[in-house]
Amino acid sequence: MKASVGDRVITVSGTVGTAAREGRVVEPRHLDGSPPFVVEWADTGERSVVFPGPDTVLEHDDGAPPVVPAAAPTAVPHTTWRIQVDVFEHGGHTHAQALLVAPGEDLGAGLDELRSVGQARRAPGDPDLPLVGDELAVGRALRRLASRLLGDAEQDIAHATGEHSHVHA
C-alpha cells in the first residue's frame, strides 16, 4: 500500500457499533509512499501516524481504484506452551510449583516439561496476608523457570554455533 498527499484513508473499527474513521494523508513518511504515513482525521482534525492494517482502505486522490491490503494468512504455524502453577500454604509458609509443558518441544535433556519452585515465609510479626505470600512464591517460581529457559537457550545457541553465547533477559 503506497500513499500520496491527499489520498483518502478509511479505517473500519473492530468494535461493533463504532463508526469508521476517514481522513487524508498529509505526510508520507517514506519517499516511495510506503507506510507509515501521517493522516489528518476528518472527525477531529487531529493528526496521527498510521500503520495501515487489514481494516484500512486507501483511495488515491488521482481517481485510481481503492487499495485494500491483502488478507493476513488464516493459519499461522504456532505451538502452545502451557504453564500451570500450584500453590500450597501451611503455617506461614507458601510453596509454589510452576510446570511448563511444551508439547513436542525439546526443552533440554530431551524433556518436554520444566518444573521450578518458589517459596515465601511470613515473619512472626507480619500480618497474615496470604495473597502476598502467594505472589512472592509464584513470582519466585516463575523467575526461576524463566532463568532456566534463558539458560537452556544460551546452551542451545552455543551448541548450534560452537561459540559461547549470552542471552539478555
From TrEMBL:
InterPro entries: DUF1918 (IPR015035), Rv2632c-like (IPR015057), Rv2632c-like_sf (IPR038070). Residues 1-57 form the DUF1918 domain. It holds the Pfam family DUF1918. This is DUF1918 domain-containing protein. It comes from Luteimicrobium album.
